[in-house]
């Protein structure tokens, strides 16, 4: 006889459960999406572990997710024959919140029932979504490869605690048994359940099955016929991996649901690109550009978002070798036809195929962005603007990281300028508007927009009507260091060195400047002497119009912004 132990939920879980069970739900049906998604993840994990350990399949190699309805007990059960959970795993995984998405969700709670309930609907809160429709959940599970006697039963009514006990469970995998609330009994209706599965989970690559129902005519005359449940399983989804389907057979809604499934993001993606790449290296790529930057985008250990499959077998999450670091925000799936099934992260690093895939992915993303940027369609243009506001700064890292695509990246950059307060000026536009005689693209880097815009360094440029790009991202100084020219025109910081406007200055101005230089020579020498420990040189300048003096840097010096950035990075 095994004893039943009682455990308390982690405080955050209890808080979350309280909310789930006490709010009005704008979208109760999402519980199915969440639980099916977990069942699918569990099957992926089994497949992966079984690559080197095929006995984990036991005698049950056909992975599937099954939904059963029991009208008399008022239960809906989702069963998978995936990896399963040990007792300890059930305690850990179903009693604490580990995933960052749910933490993010918690941080957004407003305390207002209505708005919070809407948030639940958008996010889904993983396993705990079950309590939207159930007043008790029983989970029975057995991990792949362990004896039948090592099963576990986890039970909770969604308040402060849960119990676990050891059970006999011959079947590998997990059953989540939802004891439906009175107001959720519509989910005992097979037709209704199928509708929801179709809406949210059609992209799941495993078969999702239900017992087939058939119409049975009445045995006696004048009696009504009825639907009866047979004992034959019927697959209710397409059950093919979404990325293997032809583009034309996948709807925008299906792409969006698939994106949410793999990314744990509750926003719809901005754009996606889906291609079968043939040639020396063969693979399918399905890449999504998110609409919102994750909070950990700038952390050193932020995870890349590509899942790697080899011939439809899930191999690993966050395969960072498949994308350059500056595109780490991209989510998606790569399914390779060439890599070995037992490929490891170390092997990925050296693989020629992986290099080809990474290059192919990079090209695709940059061209997808270019299409959005240059589109005539305002909706697409807005998408690009959203993208740029969220990810523009990360993209700039590419100027340093990805020499071979530097020109393409440079084309995508947008800046504010002395002619534009919004961050919309491209280098291409800037060049096209340059007056005759201007030989460089001028820019200034500063802490913020106001500092850039009001810098005395811009006085002469303003007077001459020469546009200067205003750069205020922390990374600009560093990134622009790699971009010495654009389309044959050099980039020149107006705060560095002597600014030579060349042909843009007329002879009279030059003569006046020379005369002034001659006249002011004694003053200059005196200043140079006084400031000899503080300034490298004191020069007469033509760049000021109203201000008497300004500080500039030597052409090759580290700017104050850059020096600060390095200091913050601990270098
Ligand atoms: P997430 O799926 O984002 O990790 P969930 O709240 O949906 O978060 O699930 C929490 C954890 O519970 C999962 O990560 C997994 O470890 C475990 N789990 C949930 N359902 C299953 C299942 N059907 N089979 C095995 N493990 C599961
Ligand atoms: Mg989940």
Automatic annotation (TrEMBL):
Homodimer. Signal peptide: none annotated. ATP binds at residues 34, 38, 80, 85, 99-101, 122-127, 174, 345. One of its GO terms (cellular component) is cytoplasm. It holds the Pfam family HSP90. HAMAP family: HSP90 (MF_00505). Residues 1-345 are annotated as: A. NCBIfam families: PRK05218.1. GO terms for molecular function: ATP binding; ATP hydrolysis activity; ATP-dependent protein folding chaperone; unfolded protein binding. InterPro entries: HATPase_C_sf, HATPase_dom, HSP90_C, Hsp90_fam, Hsp90_N, Ribosomal_Su5_D2-typ_SF. PANTHER family: HEAT SHOCK PROTEIN 90 FAMILY MEMBER. Residues 27-184 form the Histidine kinase/HSP90-like ATPase domain. Its main location: cytoplasm. This is Chaperone protein HtpG. Molecular chaperone. Has ATPase activity. The keyword Secreted does not apply. Keywords: ATP-binding, Chaperone, Cytoplasm, Nucleotide-binding, Stress response. Gene3D superfamilies: 3.30.230.80, 3.40.50.11260, Heat shock protein 90, C-terminal domain (1.20.120.790), Histidine kinase-like ATPase, C-terminal domain (3.30.565.10). It is found in: Cytoplasm. It comes from the Bacteria. The keyword Cytoplasm applies. Belongs to the heat shock protein 90 family.
